[in-house]
Write a sequence for this structure.
């Protein structure tokens, strides 16, 4: 196998691919990226047996062939090669080893090769639903909910985004939900054609991060093709295909924790609130990052008290003319929530100081958030 390719194109593809590969692997070939060279294109594939990603790119192929090389090492080499250089790769078989030689400018590297015959393949299984969703809508579902994904391995069924179709205000919608028990995000977009009746699925965090990496780096505005089977999801965008296992578990009845009788409403500007929380939380302890909120007479007082560090307080003018409330939140959770709000103004709906709080972005009524208070 022999090919030549522009360094920037090669680096972009390897950046997408190598993120799937775990750095510690008991199966050597899973540490590798599979390279298939044919005609005028290269096909890169990487997998950890739960997620597989494939990308096709144009290249000048002199000799077709299939091999695998260490993914992270290959990526690091290409990343450090001179910019605007041409990368020449050639496979050779010596007396004792099979290698891939990499040459760019006056740099030369040799990597060990494992034959591609044993590289695992992940099949999607029997596809039950196929549909296309716009990049804008798909990124909305992911970006506005991923902050609430749980990282606790014991509650593995919360380690992803719950995706399903449903009805909202008389309209068919595609809904994404994520929660870690402390906060919840529920995001909706118009239901794409073909998505009616899809299985209720939980997409793993790693899958979400890997496809987001591809979408965020690409400036095009193409649709994402989605195929769903009973156990897997397949996402196709441009020249990238990602296949992932789904989380096998039952997502909890999230509707039960969304408050419906929170009648005390606070309306506030998002940016001043965010900067005030950030300033006051400087005093908070590293463990709880607690910030106290005192509401009344159209003002919000944020405060933090730490015996070892000191005390902080800041007052903000807000739209609130209800009974006085004292409550507290984890400042990190609050900041992550406000970071996904697009509008200038947000509404916080309270029942009292110790019950779940509902948060809404006034420019996006299709998204809502719930955050649990802390004891201060």
């Amino acid at each position: 196998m022999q090919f030549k390719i522009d360094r920037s194109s090669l680096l972009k593809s390897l950046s997408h691919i190598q993120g799937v590969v775990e750095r510690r692997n008991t199966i050597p070939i899973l540490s590798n990226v599979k390279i298939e060279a044919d005609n005028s294109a290269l096909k890169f594939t990487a997998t950890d047996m739960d997620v597989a990603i494939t990308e096709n790119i144009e290249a000048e192929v002199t000799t077709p062939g299939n091999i695998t090389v260490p993914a992270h090492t290959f990526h690091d080499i290409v990343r450090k090669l001179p910019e605007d250089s041409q990368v020449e790769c050639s496979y050779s078989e010596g007396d004792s080893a099979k290698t891939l030689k990499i040459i760019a400018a006056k740099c030369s590297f040799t990597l060990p090769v494992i034959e591609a015959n044993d590289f695992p393949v992940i099949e999607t299984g029997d596809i039950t639903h196929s549909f296309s969703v716009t990049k804008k809508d798909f990124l909305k579902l992911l970006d506005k909910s991923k902050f609430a994904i749980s990282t606790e391995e014991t509650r593995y069924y919360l380690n992803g985004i719950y995706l399903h179709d449903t009805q909202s205000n008389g309209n068919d919608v595609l809904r994404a939900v994520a929660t870690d028990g402390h906060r919840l995000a529920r995001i909706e977009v118009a239901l794409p054609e073909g998505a009616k009746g899809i299985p209720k699925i939980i997409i793993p965090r790693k899958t979400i991060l890997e496809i987001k990496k591809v979408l965020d780096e690409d400036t095009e505005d193409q649709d994402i093709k989605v195929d769903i089977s009973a156990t897997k999801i397949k996402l196709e965008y441009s020249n990238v295909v990602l296949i992932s296992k789904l989380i096998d578990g039952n997502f909890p009845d999230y509707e039960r924790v969304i408050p419906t009788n929170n009648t005390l409403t606070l309306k506030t500007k998002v940016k001043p609130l965010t900067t005030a929380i950030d300033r006051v939380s400087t005093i908070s302890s590293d463990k709880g990052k607690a910030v106290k909120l005192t509401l009344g007479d159209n003002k919000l007082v944020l405060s933090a008290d730490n015996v070892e560090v000191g005390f902080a307080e800041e007052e903000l003018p807000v739209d609130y003319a209800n009974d006085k409330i004292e409550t507290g939140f984890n400042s990190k959770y609050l900041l992550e929530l406000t970071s996904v709000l697009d509008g200038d103004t947000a509404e916080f709906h309270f029942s009292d100081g110790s019950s779940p709080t509902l948060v809404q972005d006034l420019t996006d009524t299709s998204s809502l958030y719930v955050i649990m208070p802390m004891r201060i």
